[in-house]
Amino acid sequence: MNNLEFIVEKEAVGLKIRDYLKHHKGLSSRLIRGAAPEGRIKVNGDVVKLNHIIKEGENISVDINKKESQNIEAEDMPLDIVYEDEDVLVVNKPPFMVVHPTRKHKLGTLSNGVIYHFKENKSASVVRLVSRLDMNTSGLIIIAKNQYSHAKLSEAMKLPEFKKYYRAVVHGSFEEDFGTIDLPIYYPGEEFIKRVVDERGQKSVTHYKVKERYAEATLLELILETGRTHQIRVHLEHMGHSIYGDELYSIYDDSEIIKRQALHAYALEFPHPRTGKIINLTSELPEDIKSLMEQLRI
Q1: Is 198 one of the catalytic residues?
Q2: Do residues 124 and 67 make contact, with C-beta atoms less than 8 angstroms apart?
Q3: Which CATH code of 3.20.10.10, 1.10.10.10, 3.10.290.10, 3.40.50.720 fits the domain covering 3-63?
Q4: What percent of the chain lies above the pLDDT cut of 70?
Q5: Which of 79, 82, 126, 75 is nearest to 265 (CA)?
Q6: According to the CATH classification, is domain 163-297 in 1.10.260.40?
Q7: Of 134, 246, 254, 288, which residue is the catalytic one?
Q8: pLDDT digits (tens, 9 = 90+) for 105-160
Q9: Strands (E), the chain
Q10: Is residue 192 over pLDDT 80?
Q11: How much is the pLDDT for 2?
């Protein structure tokens, strides 16, 4: 279903269709401007211009299946698809996989696999990432399958209804069972890779809850209120509880027990871009994090 369908309400009578679609139905200006000249906006089956004055009861149809291409090579690979419909694809990314092609990683990325999946299923979608994860962070990633859902999901990320849950195994024991880390994160510049807590930075808020305690470690559940680069890793390092296996933000060498940071994006809650219904999704912890937890329990 690539069309959005609306019946004009009495209170919207007299509006130009561009204003109705933008201010009453939440379509982005970019989508509206692109769809109109391609004849993808219709009223009662007829193509109209954006200055069309709408009338009560008119049936407005917007085709959101824009023809696009993307310079990403399709690559057959197994994908752990957690959820998919005409608007949204959610994939459980394994560790050690780059999300989007770069100069160093032109193949083997999640996006290469997603493009292949779309082509195999005769979908005209391109990869529109709503969320991202570091190469060595595993877990759920949202991909929008059309321009409309990408815009709606990007806006929804600013709302409290949109929640991203993580699990992390960290060094040391948290004294409090739950709490909030509200500390600004600053990027010193291109010559640096690490982010730091600094008053010059952007407001960054991470909520945490202790799920399990070990002798010298803690399993945390974390919810991001903001989404800064490396936010969880920076905040936990600053608190003196760096993540196991984090080669960038930890002083510990954990390479004998885990080969990457023990951080997994394990759950999502978000309003569906078309229906507004809250979608709840979860994924299991990967085997390497499970193995780490078993070793810490001994």
Answers
A1: no
A2: yes
A3: 3.10.290.10
A4: 100
A5: 82
A6: no
A7: 134
A8: 899 999 999 999 999 998 889 999 999 999 999 999 999 999 899 999 999 998 88
A9: 3-7, 41-43, 46-47, 59-63, 81-84, 88-93, 128-129, 138-144, 163-171, 178-182, 185-186, 196-197, 205-213, 217-224, 263-271, 278-282
A10: no
A11: 78
Mean pLDDT across the chain, nearest whole number? 93
- Structure-token pair, residue 151: 């815009």
Token digits of residue 247: 């080669």
Read out DSSP for 159-188? STT-EEEEEEEEES--SSSEEEEE--EE--
pLDDT in tens, 246-281: 999 999 999 999 999 999 999 999 999 999 999 999
Give yes or no for residue 298 having a pLDDT over 80. Answer: no
Q: How far apart are CA 91 and CA 131, in angstroms?
A: 11
Q: Where in the chain is the domain with CATH 3.30.2350.10?
A: 163-297
The CATH number of domain 81-149, selected from 3.90.1300.10, 3.30.70.580, 3.40.50.620, 3.40.50.10420: 3.30.70.580
pLDDT at residue 1 greater than cutoff 60: no
pLDDT tens digit string along 49-90?
A: 999 999 999 999 998 877 777 889 999 999 999 999 999 999
Contacts of 203 (CB under 8 A, 6+ apart): 182, 184, 226
Which stretches does DSSP call E strand in 33-191? 41-43, 46-47, 59-63, 81-84, 88-93, 128-129, 138-144, 163-171, 178-182, 185-186
Please list, in sequence order, all residues whose beta carbon lies within 8 angstroms of the beta carbon of residue 233, skipping any fewer than 6 positions away: 242, 243, 246, 248, 249, 261, 263
Torsion of CA 229, 231, 237, 241, to 10 degrees: -140
CA distance 114 to 116: 5
